[in-house]
Design goal:
- The complex is a heterodimer of chains A (455) and B (156).
- Chain A has two domains: 2-173, 3-Layer(aba) Sandwich (Rossmann fold), CATH 3.40.50.10070; 182-450, TolB, C-terminal domain (Neuraminidase, 6 Propeller), CATH 2.120.10.30.
- Chain A is 11% helix and 41% strand.
- Chain A contains five helices and 31 strands.
- Chain A has helices spanning 2-7, 11-16, 70-85, 107-112, 157-173; strands at 30-33, 57-60, 65-66, 88-90, 117-126, 129-138, 143-153, 182-189, 196-203, 210-211, 219-224, 230-235, 242-247, 253-255, 263-268, 274-281, 284-291, 297-299, 307-312, 318-323, 330-335, 342-343, 350-356, 363-369, 372-378, 386-391, 393-399, 405-412, 423-430, 437-439, 444-450.
- Chain A is elongated, with a radius of gyration of 23 Å.
- Chain B is globular.
- In chain B, α4 (97-117) links the parallel β2 and β3.
- Chain B is α+β, with helices and mostly antiparallel strands and 156 residues long.
- In chain B, α1 (2-29) crosses α5 (142-148) and α3 packs across α4.
- The chains are: A mainly beta (455), B alpha+beta (156).
- Chains A and B meet through β23 and β27 of A and α4 and β3 of B.
């Protein structure tokens, strides 16, 4: 059966869909779209995820057949991804009646344990290359919903698992996934007054963790370029706090712009050709746009206030930022050229760190009110404000690329004058306010930035 | 409540320090002042002048009770004309990181502008902000926060 399905593939489509240009995914060469009779996007189980809480879909993900340990490892990574989303309930493997099916599954066996969806796969290793076939099945009618084959170098096996996870998420939920992504953040260690803050990067599930800066100088607020291979951040290099660009692969850093004073709060434009930042001159912080090709700066705001944390809308037409121009920190939206500034936050308290959802429909923010910090979302016109999570201190929301999940960081207060007990950790939460989870990091952590899907 | 108490106490400490200043400088110009900080040093600034001014929550204006410290700093800088200083602005942890970096810079700039208005050459004063990222007091309470809303002058 497998043979029949696999000989049915279309090599032309396979070449045209190749993933992984350039360094990030060296060698992930081909994606085969296995066009199969009876496969239709209109069929199959679909989870309604518009409600705040939804029953997670029971899904079975047995070990992929063929080359081990990769077959088992890929199944484990997919299982962990889908479980963390809160929208799937992977069935305990001890309940499985069939192990690592490499032919058409015995659907009765999967129906018997309550699986609605089933993921099967097969791994072939040829030298330093892996070929991974993956299939998603609608268990009740016994239909294949999706079949794809990937070829890649062996060290990339985790990315295959993430790409499969995204395919399952998208096929069953009707919107893009966010598993083939990375998170860059500030890794913190040491006592509070001499804390080492260095940039680190990891896959969204915490794997492939590595440090990007050595910790000699404070490094804060990293943000991804859309290509995911460059990061804009703030460094206290030589005690002159400025915005720098960092090449993720080479580690090379370069100063951005030609400003006499402190620059902070960088954010790339959606097209990746420019960077928004705040520059301090004469006691005021104003927003500038720096063109990365010409290196020319353009001043967008000029008030006697602190305008910081600018962020573009995904279409690049508008910018949201926070300013104390009205007396305390509130959110404002303006056109990309700095015109038509209007305040959008009117709730109780101060509002900060706005970020525009990649879907364009929401702006996430930090709110400080009544001695409590909160992460919330509102529509770009300021309506529909909802608080997702509250605590002693939390800030810095960042959207996963599908706009459904946010990461942020939470701080725990010090218990005494020596700072004992203080900590900062990353968390993620669904935009419905449900499924808050810790994001595991080797040390304390702050300022997460979630990458787009890796190109 | 503690918040309101602390700043006057700190200010009082500086007033006491200030009152001792004439004695010390008198002794230094006399003879035999073998101990005590070297005039014009950081230790001298801390012990005899006061190296920091405090701010109200989310504010950057120089409070009336803090201005005497800057007046003493200006006089001290006029007296030690070769000394170059850096003013570091800080903020308490009850704000977001980016905003607090900007607020700390504004506090440092306020202190510098006051010194310049009091006759200190701008070229002798540099500024930096650490926002909430290099706290002076390590606790998470009003007393610690009051100490962290500060601009600290140090000899370069």
């Amino acid at each position: 059966m497998t043979d029949r399905l696999l000989t049915d593939r279309h090599y032309e489509a396979l070449e045209a869909l190749s993933f992984g240009r350039r360094g990030l995914l060296a060698g992930l060469a081909a994606v085969a779209a296995l066009g199969l009779p009876g496969t239709s996007r209109a069929q199959g189980p679909v989870i309604d995820i518009t409600r705040a809480r939804t029953d997670p879909m029971p899904i079975a993900i047995p070990d992929f057949a063929g080359a081990q340990p990769h077959g088992a490892q890929i199944a484990q990574v997919i299982t962990a991804n889908l479980a963390r989303s809160g929208l799937f309930r992977p069935i305990d493997r001890r309940a499985f009646l069939q192990e690592a099916p490499d032919a058409t599954p015995r659907f009765a066996d999967w129906r018997a344990i309550g699986a609605q969806a089933l993921v099967t796969g097969k791994v072939d290793q040829q030298g330093d290359r892996l070929r991974v076939e993956f299939r998603l099945w609608d268990v009740l009618p016994g239909n294949q919903l999706q079949g794809t084959a990937f070829t890649t170098s062996v060290p990339n096996w985790r990315r295959i698992a993430h790409i499969c996870s995204d395919a399952i998420y998208e096929r069953l939920l009707g919107e893009k996934g966010y598993f083939d992504t990375r998170i860059v953040y500030v890794a913190e260690s040491g006592p509070r007054d001499r804390r080492v803050k260095r940039l680190a990067i990891m896959d969204q599930d915490g794997e492939n963790h590595r440090f990007l800066t050595d910790g000699q100088w404070l490094a804060l607020t990293p943000r991804f370029h859309p290509s995911v291979n460059q990061v804009a951040f703030m460094s206290f290099f030589r005690n002159e706090p400025r915005v720098y660009l960092l090449d993720v692969d080479s580690g090379r850093q370069s100063l951005l712009g030609n400003f006499p004073g402190m620059t902070l709060s960088p954010r790339f434009s959606p097209d990746g050709n420019s960077v928004l930042l705040s520059a301090i001159r004469g006691g005021n912080a104003n927003i500038y746009l720096v063109d990365l090709r010409t290196r020319r700066e353009r001043q967008l705001t000029s008030t006697g206030a602190l305008d910081v944390s600018p962020c573009f809308s995904p279409d690049g037409q508008q910018i949201v930022f926070n300013s104390d121009r009205g007396g305390n920190q509130q959110l404002y939206v303006m056109n990309a050229d700095g015109s038509n500034v209007r305040r959008i936050s009117f709730g109780q308290g101060r509002y900060a760190t706005p970020v525009w959802s990649p879907r364009g429909d929401l702006i996430a923010f930090t709110r400080i009110a009544g001695g409590t910090f909160a992460i919330g979302v509102m529509r770009p016109d300021g309506s529909g404000e909802r608080i997702l999570s509250e605590g002693f201190q939390m800030e810095g929301p960042t959207f996963a690329p599908n706009g459904r999940v946010l990461a942020f960081f939470r701080e725990t207060p010090a218990r005494d004058a020596r700072g004992t007990g203080y900590s900062a950790r990353l968390a993620s939460i669904d935009i419905t306010g449900f499924n808050e989870r810790a994001l595991a990091t080797p040390t304390d952590a702050s300022d997460p930035a979630w990458s787009p899907l890796i190109p | 409540m503690k918040l309101k108490l602390l700043a006057p106490v700190a200010a009082l400490a500086f007033v006491v320090a200030c009152e001792s200043t004439p004695d010390q400088s008198g002794a230094a110009t006399g003879a035999g002042q073998a101990t005590g900080p070297r005039p014009g040093s950081q230790e001298d600034l801390v012990a005899n002048v006061g190296d920091r001014v405090f701010f109200d929550f989310d504010r950057y204006n120089i409070r009336g009770d803090q201005r005497p410290t800057l007046e003493r700093q200006a006089a001290w800088l006029r007296q030690h004309s070769a000394v170059v200083v850096q003013i570091a602005g800080h903020a308490d942890e009850r704000g977001t990181r980016e905003y607090n970096l900007a607020l700390g810079q504004r506090r440092a700039d306020s202190a510098r502008d006051t010194l310049v208005a009091l006759g200190v050459a701008p070229a002798r004063i540099s500024t930096i902000s650490y926002g909430k990222d290099r706290p002076i007091a390590l606790g998470s309470n009003e007393e610690a926060w009051a100490q962290n809303r500060v601009a600290i002058t140090s000899v370069r």
